[in-house]
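User: My instructor asked us to take a sequence, write out its structure as C-alpha cells, and then describe one feature of it. I'm not sure where to start. Here is the sequence I was given:
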Amino acid sequence: MIAFIGNPHRINDRGSQLLKSLRDIGFDQYILAKQKGWVLYLEGSTDLSILQSFARKLKHPVGEALQTPFVYYVLNQPKKAQDHYYGLKEGVPKLRGFGLFDNLGRDLPEDKNIKLISWKKREIENYFALPKVLLRWAEDKGQKELGDLYGSTWGDAMKTAIQETSNALATLGKPLPDSNEIIDVLDQIHSVAAE
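Assistant: Let's start with the prediction itself. The C-alpha cells for your sequence are:
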C-alpha cells in the first residue's frame, strides 16, 4: 500500500474506506488517479464514445481530456461512483471526480467533493439530433466526400433540413432539441479535468 499511496495508513475499522479500497480497487487505478488527477464516472463505454464524438464535432476544448481519461463505469449507480471515488481519494487526496448519469427520476446525492450530474432527458442518446451536432457532422462529411469546392452543399442541405424540422415542430408546439445542455455538460467536465 505504501508503495503506490506514499504513506502508511492505520486499518483499525472494518468499515473504513481504506479497507474497502484494498479489497475493491486495484493499484493500477490508484496510479491512474495520481497520473490524471481526476476520474470520470459513466454508465458504460458507449457514453464515453458519445462524449468524445460530441466534443470532437463541437470542437469543444474538453476533447483532449476525453481522449485518454481515467474513466470508471458504474451502470448509473451514483453510490458506486462515490464509494470508488472516496476509496481512491484515500490515496490521492487532491483527486477530482465527475459523475454523469442518465436521468434517474430522482435527485442525485449531494456531495461537495465529487460533482454528480444527470441529463435532463432520459439518456445521452437523446442528444444525437442536436442541430449543432448534425450541422457539424454534415459539414465534415461533405468536406471528406466532396472536398472544398462542393463540401458546403452537405452543410447547406442539413441547414435546410433543420429549418424545415424546426418549422414543423413549431407548428406542433414542440421545441427543437437544443445543444446548450450538451455544451454545458462538456464545460463542466472540462472544468473538473482542467483544474
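For the description part of your assignment, you could build on this observation: The mean pLDDT is 86. Try explaining in your own words what that tells you about the chain.
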